[in-house]
From TrEMBL:
GO terms for molecular function: transferase activity. The keyword Transferase applies. This is GNAT family N-acetyltransferase. It comes from Pseudomonas cedrina subsp. cedrina. Keywords: Transferase. Pfam families: Acetyltransf_6.
Length: 374
């Protein structure tokens, strides 16, 4: 007999049972506890569980929020939708119940060890049905799956069977690192990029400090975060200070904040998650006044590349932004998809039309190139 349940906190699910469903994950039970403790504004957390004969066999994180339909739009398309929003406030916002997380790299359903591949589509069906019932209980019409791996046939088949439509989402940048040195990595790049980066490396750089705690510099970190957020075209959530300190505390050696100093001034920071297999870039914040003179983004990039090479880490996972630079820097891209359906047929039909125009690959040529690569 299969049953499902939705919980408001991940603490309702045993730590070992959750982590068993996501072996080796950096964004594990402790990560989600840190996210909950941070109390990110305008989000409500849900955790879906599937049981077979009373034994946990599948789980997924989910969240509730108000979603702007143009969240992944940039450039001219963003300017157009902002004009629409000024004329008709709230027109582009809908209540949303989504599987996935606004602060996780991708949407993954976890399956207990020993669950055969053949059973996974059925368990995904139960997770989607549990999500629909939970959304109905909250009076939310729009159900979505945020950033499911495009190449995962089980997600695609299960979502289509549930009547969800799909569209491309922001691809995830990944840099494989089979190199023995930073110089060897630079040699793999195009000639103009290679020359540019080597020139940047010869210029004076900031002092780099790797930290497990940032309490003493937290106001400066948040100053850099807020300034970077204000410049970003694509942003879904606003992270409070407790997110950064909580992730560092809960994940212990698997989380690091890299600080960049010019004299006594903090000019950039980079929160990363790391284990023996990969380094995940969670957030890079910088002072725009120092960025050009000190090439802060590229310094941070090469610092992470060097760390991976020195520690025999094979993958640098670098997130869902800055596609023009990442194409130059040799990244590969993993495709992601958004699946969605509104329970109101009229609204669902309108969303089918809206998705033809409000797509991430319509407004950013570099993003379109990254999506096409997947």
């Amino acid at each position: 007999m299969i049953t499902t349940q939705a919980f408001p906190t991940i603490r309702a699910i045993q730590r070992s049972a959750w982590n068993d469903c996501f072996p080796g994950a950096l964004e594990d039970w402790d990560y989600y506890v840190a996210v909950e403790n941070a109390a990110i504004a305008d989000f409500q957390w849900r955790y879906l569980a599937v049981y077979k004969e009373g034994t946990l066999v599948a789980v997924a994180a989910a969240f509730i929020t108000h979603y702007r339909l143009d969240t992944t739009v940039s450039g001219a398309g963003k300017r157009l939708t902002e004009g629409v929003e000024r004329l008709w406030p709230g027109l582009l916002q809908l209540g949303l119940y989504a599987l996935g997380s606004p602060v996780a790299e991708r949407c993954d359903a976890g399956f207990a060890s020993g669950v055969p591949q053949t059973l996974r589509p059925q368990l995904l069906k139960h997770l989607l049905e549990a999500a629909r019932r939970d959304a109905d209980d909250f009076g939310i019409g729009l159900l979505a799956v945020k950033d499911a791996p495009s190449k995962d046939p089980h997600w695609r088949q299960s979502c289509r069977a549930a009547g969800l439509q799909s569209m491309p989402s922001l691809p995830t940048g990944v840099l494989p690192l089979p190199y023995g040195s930073v110089d060897a990595y630079l040699g793999s790049l195009g000639k103009s990029t290679r020359k540019d980066l080597r020139r940047k490396l010869r210029a004076p750089g900031p002092r780099v400090e790797w930290r497990r705690t940032i309490d003493d510099v937290l106001p400066e970190v948040m100053r850099l975060y807020e300034a970077t957020l204000a410049r970003a075209e694509l942003q879904f959530e606003r992270l409070p200070a407790g997110y950064f300190t909580g992730v560092l505390e809960r994940l212990d050696e698997r989380a690091v904040c890299v600080l960049y100093w010019v004299g006594e001034r903090l000019v950039a920071f980079n929160l990363v998650l790391v284990d023996e297999h990969r380094l995940v870039d969670k957030f890079f914040g910088h002072d725009v006044e120092f960025s050009r003179d000190y090439n802060l983004y590229f310094r941070s990039w090469l610092t992470n590349v060097d760390y991976c090479i020195q520690h025999n880490i094979a993958r640098y996972e670098c997130g869902q932004a800055g596609y023009a630079s990442k194409l130059r820097l040799g990244c590969e891209f993993q495709g992601n998809s958004v699946f969605f359906r509104h329970r109101n047929r009229l609204v669902n039909g309108l969303l089918m039309l809206v998705k033809l125009f409000i797509r991430p690959d319509r407004s950013d040529p570099a993003m379109a190139a990254a999506i096409s690569e997947t």
